């Protein structure tokens, strides 16, 4: 037995499923999750000493690559003074100012501890601010695990939502409307029926939880126009896209400005952090300036702020993204060529440093149905072949991949050499 297998058996006795977040368990692809011992740059090493080129990058935060020395030093320095104060610090002010300067629509910023907290709080704020109850989200988008967001579409396009998890009461789910991503008509139809009571639209501006699906032309603009005409709040969940699809996130890349933005992942440099923010006249409605309650004992934690600041300051350098975007494009094009060479139908989406590989003959995947109709058998075979050849992809076909600054042209070439073998080995 490998050390990972032994640890996985042991873990399952005291941790549900052996993991602290479900996708890590390899349930979709089968086999034993690799228990990780250490990381550096593009690499992770498991407890058995195997080295992998990692395209998960902690599910997104590591835009500089793993174990970045500047972030590591900032954490060591900050921890010299204690780990948590429960009182305001200068680092929090600096963080809010920095975020605001990079994402100008975030005129005010409130720090939280995870992406889930960011979206949950932004939705409460939108509801409190508009005095409306319903929210509108998209099929295949994930915004964390708050009750009102664990909701799928009802049986007809315009039915109210139904819970997608036991433990979410129908009475909560009925306030969540779920429509099709990249289909502005479905959004308009929902507003035709319920527009007076929709507090907000929440959207991943590039969907990264049904693999990687960029917005089609006009989709984000359409959401902005609908929110404007119904006085609903437009929330961009940029937990994944923030500091990733461009420095200022998807809103900068696509030129559509939301009222509220949620951030996570990159903003903590690997520490547990999230943030939400937006227009000042909305943000002042939260406590203590306003009546809408939101709080957190560890929010703005000094060590997390130090890590986040060290990450964001490096990202802010001119031309930072050029090589990452180029390497991501080359990786995608290389994969496409190799799949073609081996007679495997494959479609690839790229948005900045995010990419998605779809085993399908659909030329351009733009929605959830197309994403879930992909050939999961081929994906699973490809996944394990890549793992055997030293490349660690997300262990499920509906997750985006992430490229970091540490993924050089050589790392891309090494990945493509592994992909050549992997495509050759799968069933056609
Ligand atoms: N929003 C998006 C777009 C995400 O991708 C995620 C996590 N993958 C979340 C929210 C939730 O963030 P967290 O896991 O930090 O709670």
From TrEMBL:
InterPro entries found in the cross-reference section: 4pyrrol_synth_GluAld_NH2Trfase, Aminotrans_3, Aminotrans_3_PPA_site, PyrdxlP-dep_Trfase, PyrdxlP-dep_Trfase_major, PyrdxlP-dep_Trfase_small
GO molecular function, one term: glutamate-1-semialdehyde 2,1-aminomutase activity
Modified residues (N6-(pyridoxal phosphate)lysine): 265
Protein localization: Cytoplasm
Annotated SUPFAM superfamilies: PLP-dependent transferases (SSF53383)
Cofactor(s) recorded in Swiss-Prot or TrEMBL: pyridoxal 5'-phosphate
Keyword Isomerase attributed: yes
Protein's pathway: Porphyrin-containing compound metabolism; protoporphyrin-IX biosynthesis; 5-aminolevulinate from L-glutamyl-tRNA(Glu): step 2/2
Keywords: Cytoplasm, Isomerase, Porphyrin biosynthesis, Pyridoxal phosphate
UniProt enzyme class: isomerase
Listed EC numbers: 5.4.3.8
Catalytic reactions of this protein: (S)-4-amino-5-oxopentanoate = 5-aminolevulinate
Subunit field text: Homodimer.
Family of this protein: Belongs to the class-III pyridoxal-phosphate-dependent aminotransferase family. HemL subfamily.
HAMAP family hit by this protein: HemL_aminotrans_3
Name this protein carries in UniProt: Glutamate-1-semialdehyde 2,1-aminomutase
Organism: Glaciecola siphonariae
